[in-house]
Amino acid sequence: MGVSATIGVPLTRGNSWVATFGVHQYEPREWTSNDVTLIRETAERTWVAVERARAEEALRQSEAHLQQSVTEATAELRTLSHRLLDVQEEERRRLALELHDEIGQVLTALSLQLAGEPVPGPAQIETARAMISTLTEQVQHLSMELRPAILDHFGLIESLRSLCTQVELSTGVVVSFSSEGSDKAISGNGKISVYRIVQEALTNVARHSGARSASVNLDITDQSLQVAISDAGSGFVPAKVRISTGLGGMRERVEILGGQLSIVSSPGKGTTIKAAIDLMPIAAP
Q1: How big is the chain by its Cα radius of gyration, in Å?
Q2: What letter would DSSP give residue 14?
Q3: Cα within 13 Å of Cα(97), Cβ side
Q4: Sign of dihedral through CA atoms 53, 58, 61, 67?
Q5: What letter would DSSP give residue 33?
Q6: How far is 59 from 53, CA to CA, in rounded Å?
Q7: 154-285, CATH topology level
Q8: Residue 145 pLDDT > 60
Q9: What does the pLDDT average to over 217-231?
Q10: Mean pLDDT on 37-66
């Protein structure tokens, strides 16, 4: 290489070698102590500059990664906000139709029934009573859809048992229910979230699976809650099905509670939806 004089300064951090700073000269040279001191100081300063540059580059990459994460999170939040608005509007539309088509019609018929004569006869009064009974049932059903009061009075287990009975009566799908453990430590938000998850899953069973029976199994321990909704219906391939608002809503509810939702299904072999939730974040104060 034509080098006639060289000096190398090892650079260490702690007890580890990290680099060597080399100085070469084509002419023969006898290195003086001043040369060695100058080269050693230059080596140290150069390595400090290299480390600073690397740290700055790592910081830039970290900031870029953070910015990308913030951008993705913002986009996801925007998507979730749009979905929430869609769900709210769909729920309002459904409630408006139910109020107009069912309760409104009963009230109109009741008004006509009582307006026929100055004094309604026994038959009209009996018909009016039947209409009022029907109207009461519809209002109670609507109230249960908005907020099941049974959750506040009897807890999650009895609410799910009642839900299974209601689904069986309204759809004809026979739903068996079993539970283990106590729900006393679960907060109100946790109870309503689990209730809505089971409600949505059973709604999907009645609408899409073609199954005539289903099961709901609830297992509560001191640390976790697991609920599984199974049916022996037509099934599907989860990877090939677009996540609907219902399935997406269930997944979001579970993730908000710090849990995981899994869907096991295949054509002709039914479907099982499982939600596993850590009870610590949703325990009552």
Answers
A1: 35
A2: T
A3: 6
A4: negative
A5: H
A6: 10
A7: Heat Shock Protein 90 (3.30.565)
A8: yes
A9: 92
A10: 92
